[in-house]
Amino acid sequence: MAARERVLGSLLGLAIGDALGMPVEGWSRAAIADRYGWIDRYLPRQGHDETVLLSAGEFTDDTEVALCHVEGLLGGDGQVEPETVGRRLIRLARGQSGWLLDPTTSAAIARMEASDRFEDGVALPGPPSGAVATQVVPVALLQSLAAFVPEVFVREVTRAARLTHADPESINGALAIAYAVRLLVSEDVPPPDLIEVVASFVDQDRVARRLRLAAHLAMTGGSRARDLGNLAELGTSLDVAQCVPAALYAFVTHPEDFVEAVLTAVNTGGDTDTVGALVGALVGAYVGASAIPTGLVDGLEGRMYILVAGPGLYRLALSRAGRFLELHQPA
């Protein structure tokens, strides 16, 4: 499969998983089942009075922030430029989507605006946030075609993550997802081995320990009932030690089935938009854009931007990797 298919598939998958999980963010599995049975399509997000807050097929801050990073990379010739991305984040926070931002990201943007500093990040009380894991996917895609240099990879992913998140566990969770995406695009590791390889890369903190639990549970997964139970055991909250292992579990149990992987994660409940986005990014990176159902692509609001930005990011990745012959071939 062409690498451009995987790069575009990961970006599309991230946005689609986000939009599928958007209507029920914060809901329990029981509440989702009681209201919808099994979510298998885009739905609107409604307020307590049934007012539509977001239309069916819209994505949330998880994708919006990731796209700020795509724009920053395209505008910065492939370099992570904190101020460039930070200025875009400030505009995002001021716009109609500002209310969607997770508390850590929102606090970090407020600090940027007040101080004019863009690499401080924020660590709020409570469990470290996993929202940062979606925003580093573009950095992983940019790095996926070049020779792997761990020091460079860690430095650039960390630099992107630290724009908003300062907690070491949050950054480690972002590294876990970024490394998984890179491995899938470059086809370096088969899906059954992915979680263990990623856990070894991020070492011995709480994220790594939960990843190893996810790898153990994945050996018993594959059926819908078992997957829902295993994901409930792992946890699907915004806590980075829950959402990152849960996303990798959902991927490795259904690596070639985009719909089943994403919908299983969404219907488990919890932080459904973030987990859905992470699963979509992983499966999309493995199966490519053409394997994502056309109906999900056509129903995605904002898809045209991603369909333009994805090939641009791919060409930038080729240039960075020094693959100039491929860069100048027709798409």
Report what the structure shows.
There is one protein chain. The protein is 65% helix and 2% strand. It has 331 residues and is mainly alpha-helical. The protein has a two-stranded antiparallel ribbon. Helix 1 runs antiparallel to helix 17 and helix 11 runs parallel beside helix 13. The radius of gyration is 18 Å and the shape is globular.
- Choose one word for the global shape: globular
Helix content: 55-70%
Number of strands: 2
* Mean pLDDT figure: 94
How many separate helices? 18
Strand content: under 5%
Structural class of the secondary elements? mainly alpha
Q: In this structure, how is the largest beta sheet organized?
A: 2 strands, antiparallel
- Order of helix and strand elements from N to C terminus: HHEEHHHHHHHHHHHHHHHH
Give the strand order, joined by hyphens, for the main sheet.
1-2
Low-confidence stretches: none
The termini sit apart by: 13 Å
Radius of gyration: 18 Å
What's the helix and strand layout?
Blueprint: H1 3-21, H2 29-36, E1 45-46, E2 52-54, H3 61-75, H4 82-94, H5 103-115, H6 132-135, H7 137-143, H8 150-161, H9 168-186, H10 191-202, H11 206-218, H12 224-234, H13 240-253, H14 258-268, H15 272-287, H16 294-298, H17 303-321, H18 324-327
Antiparallel strand pairs: 1-2
